[in-house]
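Appendix B: a complete holo record

For completeness, this appendix reproduces one full record from the ligand-bound portion of the collection. The bound molecule is pyridoxal-5'-phosphate. The inputs are the chain sequence and the ligand SMILES; the output is the full three-dimensional arrangement of the complex, encoded as structure tokens. No fields have been trimmed.
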Amino acid sequence: MMKKSKAVSCLKIAEPLLFEKSRKGRSGFVVPEDPFRDAGEGIPAEHLRSELTGLPEVTEPEAVRHYVRLSQFNFGVDTGLYPLGSCTMKYNPKINEYTASLPGFARIHPYLPDEAVQGAIGLMWELERYLAEISGMAGITLQPAAGAHGEFTGIRMIRAALEKKGQKRHKVLIPDTAHGTNPASCSLNGYSVVEVKSSDRGVLSAEQVAQVMDDDTAALMVTNPNTLGLFEEEIGKIAQVVHARGGYMYGDGANLNALMGVTRPGDMGFDVIQFNLHKTFSTPHGGGGPGSGPVGVCSELLPFLPIPRPVKTDQGFRLVTDLPDTIGRVRAFFGNFLIMVRAYTYIRELGGEGLNQATRMAVLNANYVRTLLKGLYDIPFDRICMHECVATDAQFKKQKVSNVDVAKGLIDRGFHPPTVSFPICVHGALMIEPTETETKEELERFVEALKEIREIAMNDPDRLHHAPHNTYISRLDEARAARDLILTADMAKED
Ligand SMILES: *Cc1c(COP(=O)(O)O)cnc(C)c1O
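The structure of the chain with pyridoxal-5'-phosphate bound, as generated:
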């Protein structure tokens, strides 16, 4: 059926710090005699340096090679399959980068008057409308800088709406499958969190929610499909239970890649939902770069949206701030604007039909992987999944091979590992999200690698305990590596 995956050889050479390569007097370019002649104007003399010290002095090729090598030590969606569950590491089309680099978007200043940036405000206004249509919500804010920030903003609006009604509720319900940011966002808004156990089918039951839902509960915060990749089958009934007690339905929309263009959170009864543009809408993420977590709300919550809001008037687009019930600003200026340009490009590029097809392919790919893994790995919820599936390391108990060992084995075979040990309600989880942008052949190569790893786990487990073998740096003591950073070139001995 498929070719054996070959072990890849990574660039196994030491790369010192730029500072260690530095030699006095070396330089890549010539600077003018006194480049800072005018730069210090208005700054008191005691705060001005007389010379620059401590900067690395290297030639241009040394600088270029240094950064190119570092980039080659890295793994990204442009390098290979990146099936990191819950993260939706789909390919980022390069046309997004082209539009985001157009000077009319990239070079504008946030203090320019509205008349000078009609295109930019118009793009935000239009993107809000697209996201509203995709999610079935009445209004959108684009400001939050990431999914977690969107959660915070959404829960903040729920709190504001309850306070406006004179209600002071204290709790938010969150299922045991939830992402760690969910309880954090509630806590930061002053709510305590009540965990709801999911059923042995891996989903919430309306009955269970009804048992804990009361008049002191502000909201139920739930991801659909949940982090097991399973669709919350009772979501309609659950929304009724929550609404009947005056609570709100918060939807964590990080998994929108399983719904987009097919069904809408607004139609399921959600009152608030956040988008992760850097997941579903193909803008780059990972490594802490800028993300974007817009929030959609139902019509009742519209007055609470953050300011400024883009509006369309007869005189063109305007940014308005005089909204009496707004929760205020949640971000400097307008949020991460160029991420919005990328998401806008993606939506326009695909159109409604394309978004629908992306969703269908994402779900098909996850189910293909799940089906191929049957009999090879333990799959705790072995039925039709959405855009991701969860396997575990349960069958390697005797060999003492863990999900982390499997992950390291994948690195040796040129694949980024799936998410490990999440969701926390599944012991030894390997959570696989292939995304729609992978081909059938690539998925087969991935499963073939997992099959090889299974053989090794059964017959030579110790080899896996020391993986990865093909990288410049081998297995680290992860806890110590995080607490006791050594960043010089001789940080690790080759094994
Ligand atoms: C990624 C993710 C988040 C948080 O989003 P960030 O953009 O990383 O802040 C929240 N919930 C779920 C289910 C996620 O997968």
